[in-house]
Amino acid sequence: xxxxxxxxxxxxxxxxxxxxxxxxxxxxxxxxxxxxxxxxxxxxxxxxxxxxxxxxxxxxxxxxxxxxxxxxxxxxxxxxxxxxxxxxxxxxxxxxxxxxxxxxxxxxxxxxxxxxxxxxxxxxxxxxxxxxxxxxxxxxxxxxxxxxxxxxxxxxxxxxxxxxxxxx
Length: 168
Known about the structure:
Order of helices and strands: HHHHHHH
Structural class: mainly alpha
Radius of gyration: 17 Å
Number of helices: 7
Distance between the termini: 28 Å
Number of strands: 0
Helix content: 55-70%
Largest sheet: none
């Protein structure tokens, strides 16, 4: 690994961690959990693979929005929204399995149709379909706050990458 690669690796790590700290502090200030698991892979894409379409703001914002829509739609279409939350209850129901399969399938299909591929959004849809996040408007606002913040700060990280070739 070249010295420049090592230097960027350190900067990318520190910048990614800093973005998570900022989102976490904003969430603490707001009293809401703005920090959730699928933001980690999002900032990773932005810091490590800035030229990939999946790292761009359109893909980040639209991908997560589609993941939320697909997660909610699957839960309500299959009447699984009142099933126990899989991770906290330690119970996996048939309704949650079906809703997750439908939600992930819809997320992929919608992202491909809108040219908004963003793999971390599949984790967002699963957080909803498996019951990790409640299917309500408060959740939509929390996800929107976290995603918008990571998209804005992550765009700065993308622009700082020394080997970035794409244009905004």
